[in-house]
């Protein structure tokens, strides 16, 4: 492992006392992000059909606190109040996701559900009235349950066709006002956690299915992009892209085998999706390692997927040291395939960064700069957005304590400084979204972890209370002018 003191000497930007708006280009903007299943609730209202997460959360033992998103934080009924909050804090953009089964309840695309369209029209119109730019994600993990049950969901190639029909309906209904579209959020999580570790819906454990689920997500993405470009882009003048997630992989040592292992890890995580979108096929190292497990693209499909994005989004939270290894975990096919060890401490045993509430999340701002610069250099400097970045707290303290989220303020200071450095290094980063506006349903961890800038009081009518970090952003965005709340 690297020596902490020596390593951090090379990262002086982290020790800037404050970041300010002037550290970013004038056109750079700040937003907040959410996703439908995590906040909306109203699972049986407005004609919504069930999704795979409704079914998964009902299976015993899947969710830490046995909860679900039936009510979530009731955003479906409180969207006006929530958008009011976004405006009050001074954010200029809002990234939300559309629930596929609110638009097409059975996913097949035969009959559009007008109540679902009205709900998202209300959101979009309310945002625009407040001068907030909508960034819409078409898929944040909530596949219509009927598609899972009737055709096998992401394991069936036809899912790409149905996704195309759904995307088309969204472009037609909302594209006069939505100018930034994200097809799929973190395809890697659906592939690995949905089909390898099984901790996410649909909860399968297989050594081959993750590669099929990924393949079909790539085709679904490219199908939607091709529809947007041929039918809507010219008229509507918007942009469309994909959001990938990536933990930064820092080589454990200067040894060649560790450096190669770190690059291999990035190829398995980012390259799995970005190589097809850029070159038309998977990274060579995945073909070599996975052989016949990795599906093939036809020449026609290669032409469809190549260059199928106007921008890329990166969701980034944390980093690890990576070493070459041949001792591989038994129960995790994906790590076995990669031949890497993932290390969370410095030389001497100190954690790689301060631990957030989730076990996987350590505060390592330097990794975000490296990840952005890596994507820029490896994929020909595309327009980039940080589409998620944030940390969680354990749900322990009193309301008063939970609102004083000092570590989150530190987190954002460090990570924003890292974004500003990446831009100075030449990365074409155009905007940044904090995850998340509200405390919400954190998937397999239920409501036990809180990622919000705004506290949601689950025991008292789901009332919203901005945390110190929210006021910190408000001051940053208003250029230092003091609003409500106090400095940490
Ligand atoms: C994002 O994924 C999601 O887009 C968002 O919906 C979510 O709320 C946010 O993260 C916070 O988690 O349990 O050790 O196997 C980021 C990628 C995927 C990282 C799930 C952690 C679980 C790791 N995350 N993963 S583990």
TrEMBL record:
Protein name: Beta-glucosidase
E.C. numbers: 3.2.1.21
GO molecular function annotations of the record: beta-glucosidase activity
Keyword Hydrolase belongs to the record: yes
Residues reported to bind substrate: 38, 140, 185, 317, 435, 442-443
Keywords: Glycosidase, Hydrolase
Family per similarity comment: Belongs to the glycosyl hydrolase 1 family.
Source species taxonomy: Eukaryota, Viridiplantae, Streptophyta, Embryophyta, Tracheophyta
Domain of life: Eukaryota
Signal peptide: none
An example Gene Ontology biological process: cellulose catabolic process
InterPro entries per the UniProt record, alphabetical: GH, GH_1_N_CS, Glyco_hydro_1, Glyco_hydro_1_beta-glucosidase
Organism for this UniProt entry: Turnera subulata
